[in-house]
Predict the structure.
Amino acid sequence: MRILAVVSCSCALMLLGLTGCGGKGAIKTPALVPVEGTITMDGKPLAEVTVMFGTGSAFGETDASGRYELKAQGGKKGCPVGDYKVVVEKWVRADGSIYRSGEGISPMDAGAIQKMPPRYSDMEKTELKANVPAGGGKVNFELKSGA
C-alpha cells in the first residue's frame, strides 16, 4: 500500500513538472488582440446573435445595434492573430427566448432551433471569413437573407 502511495505521489509530481507553473515547460497561450465589429442582415443590425471565430478561438454576442466584441476562452477580451472561418448563430426556443451557449446544455436539448442559414451558421458551410491582424481591429459582416 505504501509503495502505491509513493508511486502515485511521484506520478503526480512528474505531471506537475510537465504542465509547469509558468516556467520553461508552461503551455503558452497565443497573445490576444482586440477585435470588434458589427453584424447586419440586409442592412439592418442583427441583434442577439453569437459570432465565433474558428472552432472556439474567440466569440462574442451582438447587442441591439449589431455590435460585438470578441472574447477568448476564459472570458479574456480579444482574439489570437490569424485567419478564421466565422460562424454566426442564433438559437431560439419555441417560446421565443434566446438560447445562450453558456447554459450547460446543448441547444437541441434546450429545445432551440437555428434561425441563421447554414451558409452563416455551419462551420463546414460558412461563407464568412476574417483575418485578424497584429494589433486587432474592426471586422464587420454584412449578411444577406436571400440566396
User: Anything to note?
Assistant: Residues 1-22 have pLDDT under 50 and may be disordered. Helices lie at 2-19, 118-121. Residues 2-19 form the longest helix (18 residues).
